[in-house]
Write a structure and sequence with these properties.
The structure holds three protein chains of three kinds. In chain A, 51% of the residues lie in helices and 0% in strands. Chain A has a single domain, classed as ACP-like (Non-ribosomal Peptide Synthetase Peptidyl Carrier Protein, Chain A). Chain A has four helices and no strands. The longest helix of chain A has 15 residues, at 3-17. In chain A, helix 1 packs across helix 3 (40-54) and helix 1 (3-17) crosses helix 4. By secondary structure, chain B is an alpha+beta fold. Chain B contains eight helices and 19 strands. Helix content of chain C is 35%, strand content 20%. Chain C is built from twelve helices and 14 strands. Chain C has helices at 14-28, 52-56, 68-80, 99-106, 109-112, 142-145, 159-170, 220-232, 251-261, 276-288, 310-316, 320-331; strands at 11-13, 32-36, 61-63, 84-91, 122-127, 152-154, 176-181, 188-190, 204-207, 212-216, 238-242, 245-247, 264-271, 297-301. Classes of the chains: A mainly alpha, B alpha+beta, C alpha/beta. Chains A and B meet through helix 3 of A and helix 4 and helix 6 of B.
Chain lengths: 85, 393, 334
């Protein structure tokens, strides 16, 4: 997936969790949880949605890499460690 | 019209989801009612057929009003057997008198879905499940799957499509919700003599166990700390049953099960506490699923009547973005409320040394008419002990 | 070619990986020795053991007569007394002559002796078709052997697995059969130099996807991946699961993948009737029935004795277009 496709997917999935989220004022580096008022249940639901939509299983140890928009896009764009070939 | 909260006096019937002739069973959702706490789905607990709808859409009726009648299977008087006339039409031989004729009896439906014409419906297992969960009838959908089978996408499309009657938009009226909270909390402070106890609990072991357990699971199955806190509270209530129940008509009535009202804060303001039933008997995974489900539906405004009327105690957990501790207000007519603050790292004494530990401030507010500080204190130390052995939860 | 135990080159063929894995075994454990037809002076029918007779000598690289039953039996005996024999049966087609030894001795002696004897025996076999060697020399019998309790069945499909699965099997006190597909020997892949071992228990997702699960093993893996590429151009994202181990099957991985994508095509070069594809399909039906959004499908070898003519043989083997077509029909039926 391209960076733009990932960004669009993230906005869609977060939008389902936080319908009133204002993405236009979200900067790349700020913590999305604070900016969009996402608690741990919301973040958990986001990880689940990412897994269901892309097959990508994000381990708990990597959660902090997805707290910012920039980090999340970079993480999801990189090939998964599970894929060998 | 059920009472969906201690102070509810009336509700408005905003949508019927069944019509006369529809079959219902225990747990079937039959209508949507508008209350101060938003739109609530009404369930029935009997098996039978809807016989008559008594309250039309849009009418506001007091609690206790009959909304509908269900025919539970007591057979109506059977049609008298009709003898075939001996003088049958020319050319036809009359059958023997043993045969009963009358209006044709419709074929008995099997447990599966029967399409128009009586043929068994071709629908994939997951689509059938989803149709049941969404409450849509896939019988008239054209399937896009193999051999014309109805599949998941077809059911989801059906659920999203605009129905003939405008569906009631689930959601909350912020002002009405605020008024309901104000009424309940004021009553609580007026009538209930609260006492408060606090215990700071070391969560080091619990969180370490959680991290290790989650690392083997795919995202859908991972647990949040909330599931452990809820389960520990439920198990501790088994040992202190006088914290679990309702104070009604001047006396304490113990709860028949441990149904924990889980306080959910709503986006944009507001608070609601749907019940997780029999929380002490659910596994951690079941509790986590129930939490996810109830939080999602609470925020969407599609909770069910059984979830709002039945809590025997409330737990409020501020979560990772809340304050360090909460001194909560009991939700009448319950007699206790358990509060968990934010999990923080604090200096802690272990074997005489100071170490950084993850701890959570746990509070109990109890109704002094029913329990004393001693029982409350034992309850909190019980929760503390349970959380030191997370694998046993 | 490197003399070191671990190849210092980062890109190598499957054949070379098999060889390096055998060399590492021989270097690290003096109890290891090889036995098989034409493995010594000839260097192996598929050149896997080329140069090893010169390196390790006649005692440890033993050419045998054409006698599979005796070779397998000798391997079993050697294993029973504490050696670590790695026996080669040239292809699984000839393993039929050693079937009694494998099924009735190797698989059962640990049980029948009440645990007094372990059989730490490895039997390597080439398997599969595609080399125009016709009806008697093109079988895929790994599924048959996966039926037998007491055996571990490995089907490495990548250079990394060819390099390291055998070493994992050496640590297992039970008999292990390793099936090397004849069409994989020439494939070349990069090896991650930080990997020193792999597990011999789990399947692996080789390509994550959300629309359909392609379950494959051995020679079927590159074809499943090629099919996934074709499908991706049409907007269908297939997940490819490499089984790696046919016994014990990683049922959890299979169910996890299919429960997510809800559609499944199993790729198995063997004839479909009574094959491992039937076993996999049944396990899915048993445990994930209510997750399925489409019937289960499989792409197997055509149920005929393998033809000799090249175009006929190709028509009898699973191919990427056929796999893609089966998957497409599940996702977007015409």
């Amino acid at each position: 997936m391209t960076h733009d496709e990932i960004k669009a997917l993230l906005f869609e999935l977060i939008g389902e969790i936080a319908p009133e989220a204002d993405f236009s004022s979200l900067s790349d580096d700020e913590d999305m949880r604070t900016a969009l008022d996402l608690d741990s249940m919301d973040f958990n639901n986001l990880i689940i949605a990412i897994h269901e939509r892309t097959g990508r299983n994000v381990p708990e140890a990597d959660y902090n890499k997805l707290f910012t928009l920039k980090g999340a896009i970079a993480y999801l764009a990189a090939p998964s460690a599970e894929v060998k070939l | 019209m059920p009472a969906l909260g201690a102070d509810m006096e009336a509700g408005t019937l905003v949508e019927w989801l069944v019509k006369p002739g529809d079959k219902v069973k225990s747990g079937s959702i039959i209508a949507v009612v508008e209350t101060q706490k938003g739109a609530i789905e009404i369930e029935v607990f009997h098996e039978g057929t809807i016989a008559e709808i008594s309250v039309p859409v849009g009418r506001r009726v007091p609690v206790g009003t009959i909304l509908a009648h269900i025919d539970d299977g007591t057979p109506p008087s059977p049609l008298p057997p009709v003898q075939v006339e001996i003088s049958a039409p020319v050319g036809k031989t009359a059958k023997s008198t043993g045969e009963t004729t009358g209006p044709p009896v419709p074929p008995r439906p099997s447990l599966g879905l029967i399409a128009a014409g009586g043929a068994r419906l071709k629908i994939t297992p997951v689509a059938r499940r989803r149709a049941a969960a969404l409450g849509v009838d896939p019988r008239n959908v054209a399937g896009s799957g193999i051999e014309g089978s109805i599949r998941l996408a077809d059911v989801e499309r059906l659920a999203r499509s605009v129905p003939e009657r405008p569906r009631h938009v689930a959601g909350y009226d912020a002002a009405a919700m605020r008024a309901a909270i104000a009424a309940a909390m004021s009553r609580s402070k007026r009538e209930i003599p609260h006492y408060y106890l606090t215990e700071t609990i070391d969560l080091g072991r619990a969180l370490a166990w959680l991290e290790s357990d989650n690392s083997t699971k795919s995202p859908q199955d991972r647990l949040l700390p909330a599931a452990l806190l809820l389960k520990a509270s439920a198990l501790a209530l088994r040992k202190t049953p006088r914290l679990n129940g309702l104070f009604l008509d001047g006396e304490f009535k113990p709860g028949e099960g441990i149904h924990i009202g889980w306080a959910v804060s709503l986006r944009g303001g507001g608070l609601i506490a749907p019940a997780i039933r029999d929380a002490d008997r659910k596994s951690l995974s079941e509790i986590m699923s129930a939490l996810r489900d109830v939080v999602e539906r609470a925020r969407k405004g599609s909770l069910r009547s059984s979830e709002l009327g039945s809590a025997t105690v409330t737990v409020t957990s501020l979560g990772d973005r809340g304050a360090e501790a909460v001194t909560a207000i009991i939700h009448p007519p319950q007699v206790a409320i358990i509060g968990f603050g934010r999990i923080v790292t604090r200096p802690w004494v272990v074997d005489g040394r100071i170490e950084a530990r993850f701890v959570v401030a746990t509070t109990l507010a109890g109704d002094h008419r029913v329990t004393d500080g001693h029982a409350g204190g034992l309850f909190l130390t019980n929760i503390r002990d349970l959380l030191q052995e997370p694998d046993k939860l | 070619m490197s003399d070191a135990t671990h190849s210092s080159t980062l890109r190598l063929t499957y054949r070379e990986a098999c060889k390096q894995s055998l060399r590492q075994a021989l270097i690290e454990d003096p109890r290891v020795f090889l036995m098989g037809e034409d493995i010594g002076r000839y260097g192996g029918c598929y050149a896997v053991t080329k140069g090893m007779l010169e390196e390790f000598g006649e005692e440890r690289i033993r050419d045998t007569p054409l006698a599979e039953s005796a070779i397998a039996g000798a391997g079993i005996g050697a294993a029973m007394v504490g050696m670590r024999p790695i026996v080669e049966v040239m292809t699984c087609n000839f393993s039929l002559l050693a079937l009694d030894q494998i099924v009735n001795n190797a698989a059962t002696i640990p049980h029948m002796s009440g645990g007094q004897f372990a059989i730490p025996l490895i039997i390597r076999m080439a398997t599969g078709g595609g080399r125009r060697v016709a009806a008697q020399h093109s079988h895929s019998l790994e599924g048959w052997f996966a039926h037998i309790p007491g055996l571990r069945i490995l089907t490495p499909a990548t250079v990394e697995d060819a390099r390291f699965m055998l070493l994992g099997a050496l640590r297992d006190p039970n008999p292990t059969l390793i099936f090397e597909h004849v069409m994989l020997y020439n494939i070349e892949e990069d090896l991650d130099s930080s990997i020193r071992a792999v597990d011999i228990d789990r399947a692996k997702v080789r390509r994550a996807g959300r629309d359909v699960s392609l379950i494959a093993y051995g020679g079927g893996l590159p074809k499943a991946l090629a099919a996934a590429s074709l499908l991706s151009k049409e907007g269908i994202e297939a997940e490819v699961l490499d089984l790696r181990v046919l016994r014990p099957l990683d049922t959890a991985a299979i169910l996890e993948s299919v429960s997510r994508t809800r559609r499944c095509v199993i790729v198995d070069e063997a004839w479909r009737s009574g094959s491992i594809s039937a076993e996999i399909g049944m396990r899915i039906a048993e445990s994930a029935f209510f997750e399925l959004d489409a019937p289960l499908r499989r792409v197997c070898g055509r149920e005929v004795p393998m033809p000799y003519a090249a175009h006929l043989e190709d028509a009898c083997l699973p191919q990427p277009e056929g796999i893609a077509a089966a998957a497409r029909e599940l996702v977007a039926p015409s």
